[in-house]
Amino acid sequence: MNKSVLILIFPLLFSCNNNEDQHTKNEEKVKETTQKNTPSPKVKGVSLVILGTIQDAGSPQIGCTKECCKSLFENPDHSRKVVSLGLIDTKNKKKYIFEATPDFIAQTKSLKNFCDFETKETPDGTFLTHAHIGHYTGLMYFGKEAMNAQDAAVYAMPKMKSFLEENGPWSQLVKNQNITINAIENSTPLQLTDKLEVTPTIVPHRDEFSETVGYTITGPNKSALFIPDIDKWEKWDINIIDAIRNVDYAFLDATFYDGEEINNRNIADIPHPFIIESMEKFKELPLEEKKKIYFIHFNHTNPVINIESKQAKEVIKNGFNIAQINSIFKL
Ligand SMILES: [Zn+2]
Ligand SMILES: [Zn+2]
Ligand SMILES: [Zn+2]
Fold first, then answer.
1. Three-state SS for 38?
2. How far is ligand 1, taken at its centre, from the CA of residue 5, in Å?
3. Tens digit of pLDDT for each residue in 199-218?
4. For a FRET experiment, which of 22, 69, 115, 297 has its CA 20 to 30 Å from that of 94?
């Protein structure tokens, strides 16, 4: 459907939509975001930047006719990008990205724009967590139909590596040397620069095609834990509370807020830690520990995407944070 058809159709849809408040709010948000997105501040030292906060499928989600997405087809919110972190080391003039999402084009550009040094357009390394659509399909942009990259460095666990090497169309990226896959190992730190290392840790998740990892990213002064997808905390052989204690920031799977989003199905049956479950688990932690936690990887239905929602306010009132795109964390 071309743009002019869309322009004709959408006002008709909106004239039937009596939720004007939501609509106006979204419009305001779009304006605010557009302003916020230009230009990117430059990062100093070793820092993480948040390049996306949304679950694999994005927001709006294809086919969604509910309030959460309704107005976003006509008025996209450019702050809604699929979950990704950028990692910049200014002294060593290096930049890395965690996840190759469907928003990889914008996110690699944004990562470059955060850099205060001359650097190529693409990351010096791309770290993958697992083979679900939001986390690796952006690799396609390294291929022949796109930039036809030469040896872009990708870091992946053994099963993830074999999955890419043995299955088309990903195998073509390997064969054409658009990407070079470096194998990483569970619990084994990888030294990226003199004061920067990355350690993958296996976490329980739906592992149809690959294992799933979270990452600990350790800079000269601080460290961060990144677990965008995990089954319930209790299923992990590592105690999440200890894992949080060992870092300064923890970016944790917060796909859903509560049962309302899943039509009140039993949340115990859905293999993610719901925000209300995580808040319950972490409620006895001292405020200093709670403040390390940044919820991330939001399904399109998750009310906390709107920072003004009562659920978002509840999260913040309880001492936790909601990850926001373009935030910078010094390591
Ligand atoms: Zn995901
Ligand atoms: Zn939706
Ligand atoms: Zn997943």
1. coil
2. 33
3. 999 999 999 999 999 999 99
4. 297
